[in-house]
Amino acid sequence: MRRRTGRLRAAAAAALFALGATFLAPPPTAAATAAHDSDDYCQGQCADILPPGATGNATLVQILGNKLFGTHPAHSTDQIAPYNALAGGYRSLTDATLTDFFNDASFGVPQDQVGSVTRPRSDVTITRDKKTGVPHIKGTTRYGTEYGAGYAAGQDRLWLMDLFRHIGRGELTSFAGGALANQGLEQQFWPSAPYTEADLQKQVDAIRNGNGNGARGQQAMADAQAYVDGINAYREQSKNGRYFPGEYVLTGHIDAITNAGEIQPFKLTDLIALASVVGGLFGNGGGGEVPSALALLSAQQKYGLEKGTKVWESFRERNDPEAVKTLHDGQSFPYAVKPARARGTALPDRGSVTAEPLVFDRTGAAASKSATPPRDPVRAPEKYRELEGLFKDGVLPKGSFDPTRHRGMSNALLVSGKHTASGHPVAVFGPQTGYFAPQLLMLQEIQGPGISARGASFAGVGMYVQLGRGQDYAWSATSAGQDITDTYAVDLCDPDGSAPTKDSTSYRYHGSCLPMEKLERTNSWKPTIADPTAAGSYRMQVFRTKYGIVTHRATIGGRPVAYTALRSTYRHEADSIIGFQMLNDPSYVHDARSFQQAAQHIGYAFNWFYADSRDIAYYNSGRNPVRNPDVDAALPVRAEPAYEWQGFDPATNTAAYTPPAQHPQSIDQDYYVSWNNKQAKDYDSAGFGNGSVHRANLLDDRVRALTKEGGVTRAALTRAMADAALTDLRGEDVLPELLRVLDSKPVADPALRTAVQQLDAWRKDGAQRRETTPGSHTYAHSDAVRLMDAWWPLLVKDVFRPGLGGDLYDALNANLAIDESPSAGHGPTGAHAGSAFQYGWWSYVDKDLRAVLGDRVQGPLAARYCGNGDLSACRDTLLTTLRQAGARTAAQVYPGDDNCKAGDQWCADAIVHRAVGGLTHDKMSWQNRPTYQQVVEFPAHR
Q1: pLDDT of residue 13
Q2: Are 737 and 849 in contact, with CB atoms under 8 Å apart?
Q3: Distance separating alpha carbons of residues 581 and 563, to the nearest angstrom
Q4: pLDDT at 37 over 90
Q5: Burial letters for 859-888: b for 16+ Cβ neighbours within 10 Å, e otherwise?
Q6: CA dist 363 to 182, 186, 230, 522, Å?
Q7: Exposed, middle or buried: residue 378 (CB in 10 Å: 0-12, 13-18, 19+)?
Q8: What is the dihedral of CA 320, 326, 330, 333, to 10 degrees?
Q9: Strand 451-458 to 103-104 pairing
Q10: CA nearest 409: which of 932, 938, 940?
């Protein structure tokens, strides 16, 4: 931001001082000293980063300052610059310069770097360093330690935690306003994890007293209670001291003048609601069997039963032999495999499927049919005028989350000490959780009896570090997405014995006709300063059965059924707390094997990675239900005892689960990579898209080459990650085949020949989306990048739609989006999200073109589509679509949005920290890398 004049600074100071009597900044804390921890075996070789910054709360004064003058609270933005700089600086990176781009992640705070110390109780201190403001919590008692963690969470993320507990409870509009984006968000989340208050409390009680957790379960809930107590202490103090987050005033919860109002106390059941949001976004897997079945029916309609099934299977790629795998030495871990002859499959009658309605009884603004609901603005006092309508488009931007679409994120690169310069393992890993202001994760260090860790935790459930480092080891995770959610077709019935209809609300269970349980949530709202959406209300309703939540209705052979989604982690949203407790406990985790044993206690579907001074390791976690081996998990199944999960108890939603030995795992493979790709041979993919081209290839190719060369360092592995983070997957792994087809004969048309030359030059230069120089906001090979962005959706459509037909093409597209380039706002992650190239038809194009070119293809598509298999006709299709792409202007390819002008290519890709409160931040150049990231190399061990 350009330098402000003294006059403008004086005006800003005067304006903020005028507000200061009512809304104070947090009180200053005493300076103190703290030393590095003696139990740190990383010896300065652990680093991490988490933009935008540690501070996530902002008072009303600070929010107003941000809107008027672009100012920010201390430590709310200071990790943006080093994170952003890696894209332009990684090529010259050395071990010595890593801390130019990452934080020192050593335990403790050097005495000369102590910024402040807070003592919320006599048995705990919260020390924050001058550079980043990260909280280092150190307690002398277990209760005090966790109390301090909760207090620090309140200091850094109070508004965010409050927001997300209401999202988890399906109460966002009542809390934050009726903007359409808020309505959409709660309507997406609540049906995937609908609970009564009693349901939430039962989960708390089960962790404390049941589930075979013993003393660890009791300790976990004692820790959680201390954490909640710490949050509530800060909540009350900040309210009374008038330094609470300013969003509470803007959304009508606290009066700006009198301070009347309340921030509702936190309770243990809120943690369950928060955990359901986190797990639903990043730790779920499977589901989607209804749209998968519709694609199969379309294929069978197009090609006939036998060939149609083969075509569908080839696009499904459930066990593709060419897929990049985390376990690359041929290890086999069969799970959810396709049976030789499936039984119990419940395909609907064509045209009979309807989605279950969710919203009823709309009133006021909720009943509006307009794209913009009616507004009734609330006038703010003159000095707050700039804050009117702050959340008019939603407290979270539209498209920020969609739990109905799996958001496979995060990556990991680990190299065994056998191939490193030091002889010790090296790891670069972290979760890719999107970019928000404040961030969903928060950095912290927790030191106390039985706890010793530094890293990131999701705000609101941060009683333990969830991804980070211990005394002599580090760990991280990527979303795994294996199939832990099944779809059942329950026969509908009527209690009086009359013929059921698709609308019936009773169902057959073990021979009885049972009523579905109706779960409801009624939300209402009034306009506020932040959200002018006029008053309105509606009621959300879902039906719950012993086989899960009703999602669709249909007929099978003319008989009405309801399709239900049964997730193995439903009613067990926070059970994974035991595994995290173990990962933070230095007396439990002391080597690779004990790490794997800790990860076994995590029920969500994650790939876990570990590094210490001796070993690297991997373990895939998840409550993988044991199915009847004749069941095809990729499709809906009949709700009958023979096809239930083995040992299924609907009262507790428990079953028999595959034993740990059957989960993909390994210790000391030469290297591991993961970018939400296939785990191992025969570990069948739960969704479409794990084929010959996957973004994990970008990592695998680079790390394999490094490992072969040997002498790998932290800097070298970070460079490999950063290089992949700027690479266009299509350009590196599909464009070569596209160019081979085009070059099968000379290109006569001058304009097309130029386009081909531009694309080839870009490919030879690495097919990257990178600036000419850092900060130029102009891409090298910008014309080639624009051509690829314009060409890809055109070529996919013209290659496949003629052969597949419109119905099947659309049905497949409903299961797997065509494109997810950084600027593709229509993709699963939306625009400006950073994460890219996870979902797309890259494998389909690659396999089809290689088949047309006469190359050997393992696991080929069941038919040839480009030019109907004829090379010359295929070339004509590609040239025609390339000509169309070349005619599109930059403004047409990058149409602009609220963040960017039309035609601005760099901005269309750029990462935007989606505001989850009153602060906004500068854009960052696109990088496809973890949000929180560690670089670690332990030289010593206990």
Answers
A1: 33
A2: yes
A3: 37
A4: no
A5: bbbebbbbbeeebeebbebbbebbeebbeb
A6: 16, 17, 39, 11
A7: middle
A8: -80
A9: unpaired
A10: 932
Hey, is 317 helix, strand or coil?
coil
Phi and psi angles of residue 486, each rounded to the nearest 5 degrees, phi first: -120, 155
What is the number of other CB atoms lying within 10 angstroms of the CB of residue 43?
12
- Rounded CA separation 70/1 (Å): 8
In 69-218, the DSSP E strands lie at 103-104, 114-121, 124-129, 135-139
Structure-token pair, residue 815:
């299961």
Residue 646 burial (10 A CB sphere; 0-12, 13-18, 19+): exposed
pLDDT score of 74 more than 70: yes
Q: Length of the chain in residues, anyone?
A: 942
Nearest 5 degrees, angle CA 369-CA 359-CA 182?
70
Rounded Cα distance between 876 and 842, Å, is 20
Residue whose tokens read 């993919």: 685
The per-residue DSSP string of 798-816 comes to: HHHHHHH-HHHHHHHHHHS
pLDDT for the residue 734: 98
Closest CA to 240 of 438, 454, 81, 24: 24
Beta-bridged to residue 533, according to DSSP, are 375
Omega cis (within 30) before 438 = yes
**CA dist list (Å): 392 to 181, 359, 395, 534:** 9, 21, 8, 11
Take residue 320 and report the two structure tokens written for it.
């593709």
The encoded tokens of residue 414 equal 């680990």
Q: Which two tokens stand for residue 381?
A: 């006092």
**384-395 residue pLDDT tens:** 899 999 999 999
User: Counting beta carbons within 10 angstroms of the beta carbon of residue 383, is it exposed (0 to 12), middle (13 to 18) or buried (19 or more)?
Assistant: middle
User: Which residue is listed with tokens 């790891």?
Assistant: 427
Looking at 282-358, which runs of residues are DSSP E strands? Answer: 332-335, 354-355
Range of weakest confidence among 7-11, 234-238, 352-356, 516-520: 7-11
For residue 759, which of 745, 738, 729 has the smallest C-alpha distance?
A: 738
Angle formed by the axes of helices 842-853 and 735-742, nearest 10°: 40
Does residue 841 contact residue 918 with C-beta atoms inside 8 Å? no
- For residue 776, the one-letter residue type is S
3 state SS for 456-514: EEECCCCCCCCEEECCCEEEEEEECCCCCEEEEEEEEECCCCCCCCCCCCEEEECCEEE
pLDDT beyond 80 at 29: no
Strands 473-479 and 548-556: unpaired
Please state which of the ranges 16-25, 129-138, 832-841 shows the lowest mean pLDDT: 16-25
Q: What is the pLDDT of residue 372?
A: 87
Strand partners for 519 = 542
CA 427 to chain centroid, in Å, comes to 21
What is the token pair recorded at 914?
């989606």
For range 882-899, the mean pLDDT: 95
Confidence of residue 826 (pLDDT cuts 50, 70, 90): low
Burial class (CB in 10 A: 0-12, 13-18, 19+), 131: middle
Q: What's the CA gap between 22 and 64, in Å, rounded?
A: 13
Report whether pLDDT(653) > 50: yes
Q: Is the pLDDT of residue 64 over 50?
A: yes
Q: Could you count the other beta carbons within 10 Å of the beta carbon of residue 760?
A: 16
Q: Are 343 and 631 in contact (CB under 8 A)?
A: yes
Average of per-residue pLDDT values in the chain: 93
pLDDT mean over 70-75: 96
